Amino acid sequence: MYKVEATGVGFGVIGTSPSPVAADMTETPVEIALVAAVRGGDRDAFGRLYDLYARMVHGILLARVPYDEVDDLVQDVFLVALRKIDMLRDPSAFGPWLAMITRNRAMDYHRRTRETDELPDTLAHTSAPHAEANEVLALICELPEAYREPLILRFVEGMTGPEIAVRTGLAPASVRVNIHRGMKLLRARLQGTGGKEQ
Amino acid sequence: MSDYLWDKSGEADEEVERLEELLGPLRYQPRPLQLPESFSAQPARSKFRPQRPFKWQRLALAASLLLMLLAGAWLIRWQHSNELRREAAHDHVAPVTHEQPRRDETANTSTNDKPVPQPVVTPAGVLPVDYRRARRASVHHDLSAPRRSSPVPQQASPREVQVANANAPQELTPEQREATEKLLLALRIASAKLNYAERQVQEMSAARKPDIR
Question: Which of the 8 DSSP states describes residue B113?
Answer without folding.
Answer: S
